Automatic annotation (TrEMBL):
It comes from Halobellus litoreus. The lineage of its organism: Archaea, Methanobacteriati, Methanobacteriota, Stenosarchaea group, Halobacteria. This is Chromosome segregation protein SMC.
Length: 93
């Protein structure tokens, strides 16, 4: 809404694919916290985070490590480099 009271609407289809992915991720993670799912579902799996830069991924992982007892994050090697060494890494199976 503008200062003159004009309202504008848009649809999610006008966002790029990566913008939609990040928006969906934010809503999902916010719901996980708001509804206290970490108390009943102590496991979180994050994958396909390539739309977010390495530093923000590291911040996200560090933040959610305080909530999810079991946090598994699938990352590209260059994104994983931004994480602290305190996190256990699995590089091959």
């Amino acid at each position: 809404t503008t200062e003159n009271g004009a309202a504008y609407e848009d649809t999610i289809e006008h966002l790029s694919e990566s913008e939609r992915e990040v928006t969906g991720l934010i809503f999902a993670l916010a719901g996980y916290l708001v509804h206290d799912l970490h108390e009943t579902v102590p496991f979180m799996l994050l994958d396909s985070l390539e739309a977010i830069d390495s530093d923000r991924i590291a911040d996200l992982v560090e933040y959610f490590a305080d909530y999810a007892d079991f946090l598994v994050v699938a990352l590209l090697p260059e994104d994983a480099q931004a994480l602290d060494e305190e996190f256990t890494r699995v590089t091959s199976i």
